[in-house]
Amino acid sequence: PSILVLNGPNLNLLGQREPELYGRETLDDVRRLCEREGETLGLRVDFRQSNHEGVLVDWVHEARGTAAGLLVNAGAYSHTSLALHDALRAFEGPILEVHLSNIYRREAFRHHSYVSLAATGVICGLGSEGYRIALQALRARLAAAAG
Ligand code: DQA
Question: Residues with Cβ < 8 Å from 63, sequence gap 6 or more?
Answer without folding.
Answer: 4, 70, 91
